[in-house]
User: What shape does this take?
Amino acid sequence: MPPKQSKTDSRAVTLLFKKHKTTVLLMLQPHEPLGFTKERLLGALKSREVTEINGDIVPDDSDDVEFGEPIDRADLEKGWKRLKSQNESVTLMEAGLQNGHSVAFRFHKSTEGKNGGVDMDLDGEDPGWDVVMPTYNDEPQEE
Assistant: This one.
């Protein structure tokens, strides 16, 4: 009798979603649209009863979530920029997200409107991503 096949697609990608000191690890299919990914992220936060992250209230609507990508994937300390495509129907693969990638996320403030009424990337300037990268200090701090 042949072994049972796993229902998990072997092409699944694991992404690390980061905001402040919170990291949410999600296993997703590369053909899933960004809109569904945002819903999964909010679902994961709510399942752990996370209602706010560093003072930012977790929204109920996935339209209030925005993703960012590293300026340099080899050095996340260099900062983040808005993910090129915020189109809800673009897939993870089309957005260039691959296994092991880190993705910053932030929430739109209620004053911004849900249909992108305020451009969050004015004049090409990054409005800021609240991501704190963990560090390991080998030596104790000197006082």
Summary: The beta strands are 13-19, 22-28, 52-53, 56-57, 65-70, 80-82, 102-107. Residues 77 and 133 are 7 Å apart (CA to CA).
